[in-house]
UniProtKB/TrEMBL annotation:
It catalyses: 1-(2-carboxyphenylamino)-1-deoxy-D-ribulose 5-phosphate + H(+) = (1S,2R)-1-C-(indol-3-yl)glycerol 3-phosphate + CO2 + H2O. CDD domains: IGPS. Belongs to the TrpC family. Pathway: Amino-acid biosynthesis; L-tryptophan biosynthesis; L-tryptophan from chorismate: step 4/5. PANTHER family: INDOLE-3-GLYCEROL-PHOSPHATE SYNTHASE, TRYPTOPHAN BIOSYNTHESIS PROTEIN. The keyword Lyase applies. InterPro entries: Aldolase_TIM, Indole-3-glycerol_P_synth, Indole-3-glycerol_P_synth_dom, RibuloseP-bd_barrel. Residues 16-267 form the Indole-3-glycerol phosphate synthase domain. Keywords: Amino-acid biosynthesis, Aromatic amino acid biosynthesis, Decarboxylase, Lyase, Tryptophan biosynthesis. Its EC number is 4.1.1.48. This is Indole-3-glycerol phosphate synthase.
Amino acid sequence: MSNTESNTVNGQATILDRIVAKKKQEIEADRRRTPIVRLEESDNFFRECYSFRDSILDPALTGIIAEFKRQSPSKGIINNKVSVKEVTNGYASAGASALSVLTDRSFFGGKKADVIEARKRNKIPVLRKEFMLDEYQVVEAKALGADVILLIAAILRPDEIQKLARLAKGLGMSVLLEVHNREELDRSLFPELDAVGVNNRNLADFNVSVQHSYDLVEHIPAEFLKISESGLSDPTTITELRSAGFNGFLIGENFMKQQDPGRAMAEFVKQF
Ligand SMILES: O=C(O)c1ccccc1NCC(=O)[C@H](O)[C@H](O)COP(=O)(O)O
């Protein structure tokens, strides 16, 4: 599927179709409300980004990209009682290599201001976790204070991936490409990318299997950081994924479902 196509499962629009359709409307409204020239005036637009590569490979840190996620289409409300400040500070103190902050409001209960807050409070890279379709969102990510953007192969054509990645790199940000299978991987690799994430969650039907990471790792070229994403809840799995060649691990729900996500992460990392 690309930005312009649509997929169905059993004749029904997938959640990704619905997210993409809504996102296109939101982008147009945002563009009218805040033109790009205004985004380019923000203080964060001029800051130097933290290096995603350096932080993920820093042996003093854990390799974990810890996610602030209030709710999700697959789980509904996960935790809407905690603040970005307390959670991201907790994650950073527990050794997170980066923070992932969802900005989609309709499906994930996120806010753009969450990225601004996470950026202000922490000194590690912040990933703006969004369904990126348009150059406007890339410029906006920089203006919010993001260091990294996510590009999802399932919703972008190869030329769209390269165009958005080039823009992000030109603005000094890093780029994480997300794939779920071999076909997406093989058509989506470009030198502008910094990292390839294997999403263990099938975004059409929500099934989660870490086997996707093991199946794809050997096909990711050496120059890219390798990130395993979603459904990670066992410290032993992290150790095994690291042995298989992964450098980073994106974890959301396993921490966010606890009353104190930062403390949950601190307990988790003691075990690997
Ligand atoms: O999490 C979902 O239900 C979901 C549904 C549709 C599109 C994306 C979705 N999640 C985004 C993510 O990739 C995860 O938030 C991230 O990898 C962390 O996953 P987890 O540790 O399982 O919360």
